[in-house]
C-alpha cells in the first residue's frame, strides 16, 4: 500500500509536493494538463521504470522541471515513495519502506532504498512479483486497457507470470544462463 509520494522538480512539480495517501481509494481530479498523469508517471519512475516512452518523455531530462515564464528550470528531479510493509509483502524486514530516485541534468542518477544508496536493479527486484513492479497491471494508463486486450498470448503471459509471483525466479534463471 502506498502511503506517501513526494515530488521535487519532477515534470510540472518544481516545489516539493507531498501527497499523503490514506486507506481506501484516492482520486485525483483537475483540469486538463494540470499534472494528474504526471503523478502516476512519478510513481512508475520511482518504481524503476528505465524507459522514457511509457512515461511520456523522449529523454530522461524531460522528467526534470523545464521552467515556466516566471520560474526557472531545475537541475534535478527527485521522487520519494513511502510504502506500508507491515504485512511484509516486500520481503524486507521493515514496517515501512521508502524508495527514492534522483536524476540530475548532468546525467547522474541516484537510487535509495530506506535512505541507503542502492542500484536501480535492487529497486526493480524489490518490487518484482509484488504486483507493484514497473511493468505490471497496478498502474494502467490511458490506452493501456486496449493494449492488454490486443496483447499477444506471449505478452499476456508476462502479466500472469508477474501476478502469480514466478517472474522473479524466471528473470534470475535467465540472468544465470547469460553468465
Ligand atoms: P489530462 O486531463 O489532459 O490527462 P493531466 O492532468 O493528466 O491532463 P499531465 O499530462 O499530467 O496532465 O500534465 C501535462 C503538463 O505537464 C503539461 O502542461 C506539461 O507542460 C507539463 N510538463 C510535463 N513535463 C514537464 C517538465 N519537464 N517541466 C515542466 N512542465 C512539464
Ligand atoms: Mg492525463
UniProtKB/TrEMBL annotation:
It is found in: Cytoplasm. ATP binds at residues 31-38. Homodimer. Contains large globular domains required for ATP hydrolysis at each terminus and a third globular domain forming a flexible hinge near the middle of the molecule. These domains are separated by coiled-coil structures. Belongs to the SMC family. Required for chromosome condensation and partitioning. This is Chromosome partition protein Smc. The gene is smc. The chain holds residues 1 to 179 of 1191 of the full protein.
Amino acid at each position: 500500500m502506498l502511503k506517501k509520494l513526494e515530488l521535487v522538480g519532477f515534470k510540472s512539480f518544481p516545489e516539493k509536493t507531498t501527497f499523503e495517501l490514506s486507506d481506501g481509494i484516492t482520486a485525483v481530479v483537475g483540469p486538463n494538463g494540470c499534472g494528474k498523469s504526471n503523478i502516476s508517471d512519478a510513481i512508475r519512475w520511482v518504481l524503476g521504470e528505465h524507459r522514457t516512452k511509457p512515461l511520456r518523455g523522449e529523454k530522461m531530462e524531460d522528467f526534470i522541471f523545464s521552467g515556466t515564464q516566471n520560474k526557472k528550470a531545475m537541475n534535478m528531479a527527485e521522487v520519494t515513495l513511502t510504502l506500508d510493509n507491515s504485512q511484509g509483502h516486500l520481503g524486507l524486514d521493515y514496517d515501512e519502506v521508502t524508495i527514492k530516485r534522483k536524476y540530475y541534468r548532468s546525467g547522474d542518477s541516484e537510487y535509495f532504498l530506506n535512505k541507503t544508496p542502492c542500484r536501480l536493479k535492487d529497486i526493480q527486484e524489490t518490487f518484482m512479483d509484488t504486483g507493484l513492479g514497473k511493468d505490471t497491471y497496478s498502474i494502467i494508463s490511458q490506452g493501456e486497457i486496449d493494449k492488454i486486450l490486443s496483447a499477444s498470448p506471449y505478452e499476456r503471459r508476462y502479466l500472469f507470470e508477474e501476478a502469480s509471483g514466478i517472474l522473479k525466479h524466471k528473470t534470475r534463471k535467465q540472468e544465470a544462463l547469460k553468465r
